[in-house]
Description:
Elements: H1 2-8, E1 32-41, H2 50-57, E2 58-69, H3 77-85, E3 89-98, E4 108-116
Parallel strand pairs: 1-2
Antiparallel strand pairs: 2-4, 3-4
Amino acid sequence: MLKEAKKKEVYTEFICTSLNGQPIPQIKSGQFDALICGGALSTGRIGSSAFVEMIRMVQTDGVLCFNIIKEELEHYQEMMTELEKAGEWMCMSKASSPFYAAEDLPSECWMFFYKVSKN
């Protein structure tokens, strides 16, 4: 993916790292206006502890957009609720959305939009 991004010649920085609960030193707090994470929040890939780092990377009043397969929401919901109760972010939208058309893959997911409350 980084090779494809470099070909576009529109990005100025490339970081290849894991997204988990640990801070990514190359990314400053509030560095981004928004963060989009599509198809990656799944058990065995990116766990709920990554939400803390995602919030850190996005500026106050910035937006986080991500999707979670409906069957996997239970693995993320507790952390999402805790962070909202703590005032870290606020859910602006939760909607059902198509995911995959293939029969052997999940057909629907939840699409979330959160606003970062403080950073």
